[in-house]
């Protein structure tokens, strides 16, 4: 027997892996993982074939993440605002028909984000191929027959965000750089900050005298 006042071992190792008359299966198995993977792949392929030559995904805006911790990061949002759609010369109803996501709840809080998403919409419009509703009647805004024939279905995200990679700047090590002592400069600056008030009081005292 073990020593000291320990907890009495009372673990239950008899898991119910099989259904029985006493109750249902208590452990969830993933034996269909490979089959589900294939089913999802076939479902994605059938959806793409159904909407072809349109892209499967919609155009999303570039938004900043919430909270002070993550607001410097930019990601794809739910949809464009009415103000952004209007600035790009579109209407919300028409934008939804040409693969642009619209979010009626989002609001623009800065001119920079508004300009960024309007430029994103204009770039999408320049690359957009609009098929005519009726083949015989081509209206204004529709693409030509040559463009419609040459179009291919887009795979992946529509206008994905490109992260800016800061390049490494190379420089020569000069005598001026080696002469600088960072720790010494920091220590002197800290000391100057400490005695700044005392020196100011001494200077005022001398002026009064």
UniProtKB/TrEMBL annotation:
Keywords: Ribonucleoprotein, Ribosomal protein
GO molecular function, one term: structural constituent of ribosome
Superkingdom per UniProt: Eukaryota
GO cellular component: cytosolic large ribosomal subunit
GO biological process, one term: translation
InterPro entries, A to Z: Ribosomal_eL13, Ribosomal_eL13_CS
Family assignment from sequence similarity: Belongs to the eukaryotic ribosomal protein eL13 family.
Matches recorded under PANTHER family: 60S RIBOSOMAL PROTEIN L13, LARGE RIBOSOMAL SUBUNIT PROTEIN EL13
Entry protein name: 60S ribosomal protein L13
Source organism: Eucampia antarctica
């Amino acid at each position: 027997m073990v020593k000291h006042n320990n907890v009495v071992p009372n673990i239950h190792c008899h898991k119910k892996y099989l259904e029985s008359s006493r109750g249902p299966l208590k452990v969830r198995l993933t034996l269909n993982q490979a089959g589900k993977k294939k089913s999802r792949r076939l479902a994605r392929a059938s959806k793409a074939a159904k909407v072809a030559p349109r892209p499967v995904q919609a155009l999303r805006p570039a938004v900043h993440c919430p909270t002070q911790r993550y607001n410097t990061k930019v990601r794809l949002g739910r949809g464009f605002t009415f103000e952004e759609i209007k600035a790009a010369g579109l209407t919300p109803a028409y934008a939804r028909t040409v693969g642009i996501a619209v979010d009626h709840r989002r609001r623009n809080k800065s001119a920079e984000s508004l300009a960024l998403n309007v430029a994103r919409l204009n770039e999408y419009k320049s690359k957009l191929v609009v098929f005519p509703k009726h083949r015989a009647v081509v209206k204004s805004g529709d693409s030509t027959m040559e463009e419609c024939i040459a179009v291919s279905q887009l795979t992946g995200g529509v206008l994905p965000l490109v992260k800016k990679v800061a390049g490494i700047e190379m420089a020569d090590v000069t005598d001026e750089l080696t002469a600088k002592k960072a720790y010494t400069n920091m220590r002197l600056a800290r000391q100057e900050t400490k005695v700044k008030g005392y020196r100011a009081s001494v200077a005022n005292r001398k002026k009064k005298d």
